[in-house]
Design goal:
Length: 374
């Protein structure tokens, strides 16, 4: 007789694996549905905007150019702030949600310096020196606060589960906010008008660019180049990269890990101080909540570009500024949605979700240390 091989009985483990595979397929199907729907909506919105532009409706070509420059300048601000989030995550593996308040501290103390210079006539008589002094005050304030936060709040929590320093950073954020509210009040403080040298506009390739916006973009480019040189070419920068890769091995190689982590917080704080001056040039008004929304946007930019990737943080900030400034009118306006400009925050965060759906590691890819890799 010919023996017929019997099918082995189905075990519980095999049934669970089949269920997980079926569940994964439904998740993939859902994500693909979101991707296809997003592509259709974006294409339809773009076609609608192009039709309106050809028909002479909506924003003129000059208006689109102004919007582009404004978006780039605001995106440069987000990018500098995002560097602080990205560097801390690359080294310590958690998001420092108090970084927005580090930025706010620079803008608030910088306002005191700018107001004093304005009242004594130095703001107008020597504008370059005034801006340099305000920049130094903002950078020193933000750097000191960032270093103090690391020493007081985070150093003893390095070996703790990541949720603990994350919650601690949120607590530090609220503590700093309301400390500044008690010191400076809850009302808005307005920087003096830009000096006359920054009051006009500059024509670049036929495009009129406000001098303040051009200054912000130049400051961001110079700061990014300086940061790249520091990280890539200096001894401390090489130590930062080594600690980000593996803290234990870096320590065995003779690198002072504590000092290097302090340097990371100091660099992030200095970049936040530079962003504080940029905020003053673009928006002028500051209060104790100034760091909250820009901080959330900068965190979004860091995730958008790729966590731990410094170039990605800057690129993500610029892209977020473009999404926020141009996206509502270009996509939602083309779809005929009224009040599209009022939805700029929603568009920025939806853009983040869509980027993560298409590319979960961010547009430029993550750069994580050995402890953070899966």
């Amino acid at each position: 007789m010919t023996s017929i091989a019997k099918k082995p009985p189905e075990t519980e483990d095999s049934r669970q694996r089949e269920r997980r595979a079926l569940k994964l397929s439904w998740v993939d199907l859902f994500l693909w549905a979101i991707r296809i729907a997003a592509i259709i909506i974006i294409v339809v919105g773009l076609i609608g905007s192009i039709r309106k532009f050809i028909a002479g409706e909506g924003i003129s070509a000059e208006g689109w150019r102004d919007l582009l420059v404004s978006s780039l300048s605001q995106g440069a601000l987000y990018g500098l702030l995002a560097l602080g989030y990205s560097m801390v995550y690359g080294v310590l593996g958690f998001i420092n949600f108090a970084h927005g308040e580090v930025f706010m501290s620079g803008t608030m103390v910088g306002f005191i310096a700018a107001n004093w210079l304005f009242e004594n006539g130095i703001w107008e008589s020597n504008p370059l020196l005034s801006l340099l002094l305000v920049l130094m005050v903002a950078m020193v304030t933000s750097t000191l606060l960032a270093v103090i936060i690391e020493r007081v709040a985070y150093r003893r929590l390095r070996a703790s589960p990541r949720l603990i320093p994350l919650i601690t950073s949120i607590g530090m954020s609220f503590f700093i906010q309301y400390s500044f509210a008690g010191l400076f009040g809850v009302g808005f403080n307005t920087y003096p008008p830009p000096p006359e040298i920054l009051a006009g506009s500059v024509n670049i390739f036929g495009i009129d660019v406000r001098t303040t916006q051009l200054t912000v973009i130049i400051i961001a480019i110079v700061s990014m180049i300086g940061l790249w040189y520091f990280v890539a070419k200096t001894k401390t920068g090489r130590a930062v990269r080594a600690v980000a890769e593996d803290k234990e091995i870096a320590g065995l190689m003779g690198i002072n890990v504590d000092r290097t982590i302090v340097a990371v917080f100091a660099i992030g704080g200095a970049m936040a101080g530079v962003a504080g001056l940029m905020w003053a040039l673009l928006f002028r008004s500051v209060n104790f909540l100034t760091g909250f929304i820009p901080g959330i946007k900068a965190f979004t930019a860091a995730v958008l570009g790729g966590v731990g990737n410094m170039a990605g943080a800057m690129g993500g900030g610029v892209l977020l500024g473009l999404f926020e400034g141009i996206g509502p009118l270009l996509i939602l306006g083309g779809l005929g949605i009224p009040g599209a400009t009022q939805l700029k925050d929603a568009v920025a965060f939806i853009a983040l979700v869509l980027v993560l759906v298409f590319r979960p590691s961010g547009l430029f890819g993550e750069r994580l240390g050995s402890d953070d890799r899966v």
